[in-house]
Design brief:
This protein is an alpha/beta fold and about 220 residues long. It has helices at about 10-15, 25-30, 35, 40-45, 45-60, 65-80, 95, 155-165, 185-190, 215-225, and strands spanning about 5-10, 85, 100-105, 105-115, 120, 140-145, 165-170, 195-200, 210-215. The structure holds ligand BV8.
């Protein structure tokens, strides 16, 4: 039975109204990545970083899953122990579409992290620099997000799934950010077939056995169903 590893990026949630990063008008064209998505930026100006993620958290709360999220949730429900769903996204639209097990390698907007004791909890809608950690009380809380230069979450679990994959599918990711952008090669070396579903060619399109172009809300249900 085929084991499938799926990697999703911002393009999966684009049709739900959540901004991508590198498309025209994307988040990195409005905010300086160094200022809002690095630990150094957070240390320099935590209020700006909380403002950036508070705005994205509100945007996410107002968004609804699109047919691509629903199709992936259906696929995982139909093949529960054969579909590993990895996302670079920090939104919870896959969960809200019914996906039972989502690996958020870059963290989650809905979670907060204490920089002092490592405690994690459900993030309030609006986070601020003076929020005390519920466990140790210090005001060193941050969004539970993996920033540039930080180690992505669940890498061992992901590497194991890639080593055993029969099929690797990348959906709506530009292939610019590592280690996620290297997953297609990891899976290919392990003998998996590789498929890319994207609105346009990505930085790693040439590494896939097959690439289909179009919006995720059409391509993903077509592929799943
Ligand atoms: C790390 C925070 C060490 C959350 C993000 C080589 C090896 C290892 C590391 C590096 C390396 N080279 C450089 C590095 C360092 C760095 C890196 O990759 N830099 C880049 C810029 C060169 N990587 C890191 O720092 C990572 N950490 O490497 O630690 C390590 C490594 C391995 C093992 C142990 C330790 C940490 C990276 C995480 C950074 N955090 N964000 C947040 O704020 O959201 S990354 C950021 O970019 C987002 O989180 C997002 O997840 C990620 C990728 O972006 P995409 O999802 O691809 O979005 P993008 O806008 O780029 O593209 C959108 C795509 O959608 C496009 O292709 C478009 O065509 C498509 N699309 C649009 N609309 C649709 C669509 N597709 C379908 N339908 C549509 N409707």
């Amino acid at each position: 039975m085929d084991r499938i590893v799926i990697l999703t990026g911002a393009g999966l949630s684009a049709e739900s109204g959540l901004g991508t990063f590198r498309d025209v008008g994307g988040l990195w064209t409005k905010y300086d990545l160094e200022e809002v998505a690095t630990p150094e930026g957070f240390a320099r100006n935590p209020a700006l970083v909380h403002e950036f993620y508070n705005a994205r958290r509100a945007n996410c709360r107002g968004a609804t899953p699109n047919p691509a999220h629903a199709a992936l949730a259906r696929l995982q429900a139909a093949l529960p122990d054969r579909v590993t769903l990895v996302t670079q996204n920090v939104d919870d639209l896959l969960e809200r579409a019914g996906a039972a097990s989502v690996i958020h390698m870059h963290g989650e907007l809905t979670r907060a992290l204490c920089g002092a004791c490592g405690h994690r909890w459900a993030a309030p809608d609006v986070m601020g620099v003076d929020d005390p950690c519920p466990a140790c009380g210090t005001a060193s809380t941050r969004p539970d997000i993996v920033w540039f230069g930080e180690i992505p979450y669940h890498m061992e679990q992901i590497d194991t799934a890639l080593a055993q994959a029969d099929l690797f599918v990348a959906i709506g990711t530009s292939g610019n950010v590592y280690p996620a952008a290297g997953f297609v090669q990891q899976a290919g070396f392990a003998g998996a077939r590789t498929l890319e579903l994207n609105l346009e060619a990505s930085a790693t399109s040439g590494l896939f056995d097959e690439a289909r172009l179009g919006p995720a809300s059409q391509l993903v249900p077509e592929w799943v169903d």
